[in-house]
Amino acid sequence: MVLAVLVGLLVAADLGARSVAEQQLRDRVAAAAHSTGPTTARIGSFPFLGRLLTSGTVSQVRVSTADVTVDGLTLARISLDLQDVTFDRGRLLSDRKVVLDALGHGTAEAEVTQEQLSDRLGVPITLTPGRVQVRVAGQLVAAKASVSDNTLHVTVAGLSLPGLKIPTLPLVPCVADAVILAGRIRMTCSVDQIPPELVGRPLDQLKPSP
Question: Which phi and psi angles does 158 have, rounded to 5°?
Fold first, then answer.
């Protein structure tokens, strides 16, 4: 009975510490992104405190926020998936401050809807998995979507569309690829450093994205 109580207390303390860390990450992302949609954060590690004490790392950190507008472009979702993340153990255990130091690798994603694309490019665009269609003279015409130099290009034969410049986004240091989904385009890039929004500076020192 005593052992069960002790185990229960240890598990509760571990879950409580992880919950505090996740809340700090949620607050930091929401403050940096100025999003109007929900923000989530999840630390994939159990035990949490045990791994911090022995190695200072957790297996995964995932954050996501929705409805982020930057330079007039509204992103339906921005997310970050970091693997093998190193924490500052001393800061977390002494003053419960989440400070991320390094990571093994990660992926950043940003999604834009077909409605937003249609509005910004000035033509009706329909997105289905793997396909882009543009309505021209009342007819749906097959098109292609690609990303280069942080610009989203939608091209269709016989129609010249302007490139959609992707502004500097919170959590997403670059845009390297585009995947066509139902009703939206997902843009991704690889991450090898902790984005400044998650490093651990005080929230009032995080500058809003231009």
Answer: 85, 5
pLDDT tens, 12-58? Answer: 456 567 788 889 899 989 988 999 999 999 998 767 777 777 777 88
Determine the Cα–Cα distance for residues 177 and 122; give it in Å rounded to an integer. 23
Core vs surface per residue 163-187: b (16+ CB within 10 A) or e: bbebeebbbbbebeebebeeebbbb
Instruction: Report the distance separating Cα 142 and Cα 119, nearest Å.
Output: 18
Give the three-state DSSP class for 88: coil
Secondary structure of 52-87 in HEC code, one letter for each residue: HHHCCEEEEEEEEEEEEEECCEEEEEEEEEEEEEEE
Q: Cis ω on the peptide bond leading into residue 167 (within 30° of 0)?
A: no
